[in-house]
Amino acid sequence: MSDPHAGGGDPNISFGEVGVIERLMNLRQHQQNGKRSPHKPLLALLALARIEAVGSSAIPWVEAREQLGNLLVEFGPTSTASAAQSAAYPFTRLRSDALWVLDEDVPMDRIGPLERHHVTGRFVASVEHAMKDRQALFATARALVEAEFPPSIASDILAAVGFDPDEILGRPGAAASAGTDSTQVRRRSANWRGRILAAWDRQCAFCGFDGQLGFGSVGLEAAHVRWFTYDGPDSLDNGVALCALHHKLFDRGALGLTEDYHIVVSNQFTARTEAGQRVYELADRPLRPRPGTKLPSAEHVLWHTTQVFKERVGAE
Ligand SMILES: [Zn+2]
Predict the structure, then answer these.
(1) Considering 107, 142, 177, which residue would you say is the last residue of a domain?
(2) Is pLDDT above 80 for 125?
(3) Which of 31, 43, 127, 275 minimizes the number of CB atoms within 10 Å of its CB?
(4) Boundaries of domain holding 279
């Protein structure tokens, strides 16, 4: 096996795999004004999982329409476009990043030609080749998911595309070996978590959970309102302390905040048991931080509302 640093020099050009990974990572730069656009990263993750499963990234449109469409409904921002239309965008447009090819030359974005010609998409040969190396494939999958999504839901995404999340996330240093340039990677503030937990009195801002084990909080996390991966700062006006459950539900868009800081429960969230339905009871509760603690800024709350919260779509 080749060593990425063999022969010294710039690893970005001396080693093909690193170049491929960087091109995949550049997909993240297409976002505009904090608008979430996980379409291309999710297609890339789906194709990587296929390489891992069957040795080829080739995916027929009918399967991508279903799988990618579902992923975008589940993990993308609320959209007025149909799931199939949302899937057609990256399935045709990933070609312009020189990473993806279709076996028929069909126009961008249009579902009809994809269906009529039974189009199959796949990574270009250089990506396909580089990703035959399992280490590189896992490192790329990890770097892609971590660049786009918060840690609280990275494993949900990996499982949904067909990976074993532990295999991908349980490898120390995988992101570093993906060759991501450290100047591009924003550093998370080391003490932000502690400052947020202290500011919110070491209890969940939604339900009041304040469990401790030994000398520290347990099951309590600092949640970004505007995701760190979407330029959300490590500041006191961009975080709340949440229990692990409510953090997950907040990052998945099942829970949100109104502009006057009341909790809102998405009507797409459902639960059958009393324990699950306790989430419904959070609706309309005001956020009440201790005196001196800032509420999250209106700007960050608005970002969460428009980009993460699961709005009512096409309701009756
Ligand atoms: Zn809670």
Answers:
(1) 177
(2) yes
(3) 275
(4) 192-307
